[in-house]
Write a structure and sequence with these properties.
Elements (H helix, E strand, L loop, with lengths): L1 E4 L7 H16 L2 E5 L6 H10 L2 E3 L8 E5 L6 H9 L3 E4 L3 H15 L3 E5 L5 H7 L7 E3 L12 E6 L5 H14 L2 E4 L5 H10 L2 H4 L2 E5 L5 H13 L3 E4 L15 E6 L5 H12 L3
Parallel strand pairs: 1-12, 2-3, 2-4, 4-5, 6-7, 6-8, 8-9, 10-11, 10-12
Helix pairs in contact: 7-9
Length: 276
């Protein structure tokens, strides 16, 4: 069975950077904690916990404690509250997400309503919303858009959104909002991964997409792959694989989400290479 691994599979720049910052934080600070998981991957989270970074549910009065801001970013009030309670802040927010924060804040200051194309339950979107003084509108489909009420808006996009769906929504918004500024802030790693996943499923008998079920970017990859090849399987680790998937399969394409460690992907490739 021939196995083809996508060139873009695995960690993106933002995740690598966040993990490096986390490890360096421990070298200089005894007590490091986070509000939630550093990225959406169980193996990475386990590794971070083993290193000694604690996950907390809420901020409390602290002494000699460091709060690590995760790759997805955080609301402005989180920074302010942490500092007021005595935390030292180390910011591991992805620079591309930081750029979205900057665009949204500047647009609001110039009198624009902010529209975010994204998932309102996602940590990144919550972080974007949390930069603003006024309530923003989060949309995922045309049904979410109260067109008649919007006269002047700036549009930003969650960095891991589906590129094609985003273009469709942007086109609709441009037609229906009189004064609109558009910033398609889907990050380059996401664009590259989605470009590859539009090709691999057509060239292979089956597809394996590796990543956590909590990972938004992995979810998009699976959606695209499944629409092109019904034999597309979304797995988190080697234990999720079923050997029956590969009966009469000659070629398999593999990609992995932006938070998936190479170790996980390599284990799966090694297993598949032994199937006859």
């Amino acid at each position: 069975m021939k196995i083809t691994l996508a060139k873009s599979a695995g960690f993106c720049f933002g995740v690598k950077r966040a993990l490096d910052i986390a490890q360096n934080a421990l070298k200089k600070n005894h007590q490091v904690c986070m509000l939630g998981d550093i990225v959406h991957n169980e193996d990475v989270v386990k590794t971070i916990n083993q290193l000694g970074i604690k996950k907390i549910k809420q901020l409390r009065k602290a002494k000699d404690r460091t709060l690590l801001i995760r790759a997805h970013g955080a609301a402005s009030k989180t920074f302010k509250k942490a500092i007021s309670l005595g935390y030292k802040i180390i910011d591991a927010t992805c620079p591309m997400v930081k750029e979205i924060h900057k665009i949204a804040k500047e647009a609001e200051q110039n009198g624009y309503s902010i529209i975010i194309i994204g998932d309102n339950k996602h940590d990144e979107v919550k972080g974007i919303m949390g930069q603003l003084k006024n309530k923003s509108l989060v949309i995922q489909s045309i049904d979410d858009i109260p067109i008649n009420k919007i006269k002047k808006a700036t549009i930003v996009v969650q960095s891991t959104q589906n590129f094609e769906k985003t273009l469709f929504l942007i086109k609709f918004l441009k037609k229906n909002i009189k004064q609109v500024k558009i910033f398609n802030t889907i990050c380059q790693p996401t664009r590259i991964k989605q470009k590859e996943i539009k090709v691999l499923p057509l060239k292979n008998d089956a597809m394996i997409i590796i990543g956590s079920k909590t990972s938004a970017n992995t979810h998009r990859l699976f959606e695209i792959s499944k629409s092109l090849n019904k034999k597309s399987y979304w797995i988190n680790s080697l234990s999720d694989i079923k050997r029956t998937w590969f009966k009469n399969i000659q070629t398999v394409g593999i990609t992995a989400g932006a938070s998936t460690p190479d170790k996980t992907t390599n284990e799966i490739i090694e297993y598949l290479s032994k199937i006859k």
